[in-house]
Amino acid sequence: MRTVLLVSYTFPPLYDVSGRRAAKLCKYLPAAGWRPVVLTRDWSTGITGEDRRAYVLASHPEALDALGGLAIVRAPYRSRDNVLRRLHERLGGAYASSGDSTPAADARPNASPAWTPRTLARRTLSLFSPTFGDFPDAFRGWAAAAVRAGVEVVERESIDAICSLCPPPTAHVVASEIARRTGVPWVPQFDDLFSFRLDSHRPGPWRWHAARAHRRWMRHATLAGAITPAMLDYVRHAYDVDGGVVMVGFDPDETPTVERRRGDRLRLVYTGSVYLDDHRPELLFEAIERVLAARPEEEPRIEVAFAGTRRAAELRARASRFPAAARACVFIERLTPEATLRLQREADALVLFNYTASASSTGTLSFPAKSFEYLSAGRPILALPSDPGGWGDELLRTTGAGVAADSADAAARVLEEWLRIWSSGRELPYRGDAATIARYSQPRQAAALAGLLDRAAAHRRQ
């Protein structure tokens, strides 16, 4: 069996989305012929401010227990600090409070007039902040120690290939440098492009610096994985690296048994984070409002449960424009992974918010990972709006698991039909095709990644 060094910034017992993704790969890669050795951060030193801003970090030691004798190397983390960064903070720049490295952080209501020396200095530093600040992300302080640890692991464990998981991009930075120093083939897995695409829209010096750095890092990649065909096309064209589509998938072992009982309300469920600047929850609120305006007697019969969004207050504020819809919404605090899966299966239907700024001219660049959990749940899915790149809509169509609505009108028609069926005493129809859905299981996706690793290892031998 070959050995892969899996580079992931988060890993159990810390259990954010990326850590969970890495754990599932470790669970299923051995069946595909690859023994993983994990390089991750040492979380025993505590969680920093940048971690809290970026992640919902929960402890889930059971995930680690399930992986048995997995080899894990934990490298220490050190927050970045330098003179220019501290000056930028004193001038009220990007690092003053939020830790955001985006130049747009200067655009704040109480900012000084543009012509003052202080403001000019702050804006100049903001423009050149990628050279001294959080680039490509706030976790670059992990890179130096992780590279040293990774090189030692390669020498000690006879590593055949390296795979890194993005987000965060720093994991790719670490893996690229390990590959450069050791000559071991590297397969970066893009679960999101993050700065590898977003930085191309920054102001001039930032964009030039980012593009140059990204090309330098990706120069050492042998192949690449990406979660959608369009994302893979972007990587191919931007960095001249071939690869394959490797999705997040769902774990077929995580199928909690639930006794579905008919409640006194048609219950729609949304689980996970909501990104208010990208998702469009107002479409759902408006659709519910339209249905209940036409059939006010049905108001007590519909409920929308939002679980673990991290944005309950903001969602309530946005829903307040739609009084009937607001009364139908309930908000649940963050749940354990098991409770989340159970809630999905107990629902009458599931709600999915597509990313509205995630498409390029070639299609969908990102996709909600919860989509695959939803496929496994076996409940009808309403996605809105339509996926800008079309890939998500095609996923629902080919699996038969749900429908996409591009407008509040279209969503209202779906909800009205569901409410009519439910009010007649029947269960909502579900037409998911089990064989097609099985393609998106994590064992299948781990096998797809293993195929890329096989190709990379063969390339090294040649």
- CATH class annotation of the largest domain: Alpha Beta
Cα(first) to Cα(last) distance is 19 Å
Averaging pLDDT over every residue, what do you get? Answer: 85
- Strands, total number: 15
Number of domains: 3
Strand content: 5-15%
State the helicity in percent bands: 40-55%
Largest sheet, in brief, is: 7 strands, parallel
User: What strand order characterises the main sheet?
Assistant: 3-2-1-4-5-6-7
Principal-axes geometry comes out as: globular
* CATH topology name of the largest domain: Rossmann fold
If helices are DSSP runs of H or I spanning 4 or more residues, what is the number of helices?
A: 19
Structural class: alpha/beta
Tell me the quaternary state: single chain
Q: Which stretches of 5+ consecutive residues score pLDDT under 50?
A: 95-112
CATH superfamily of the largest domain: Glycogen Phosphorylase B
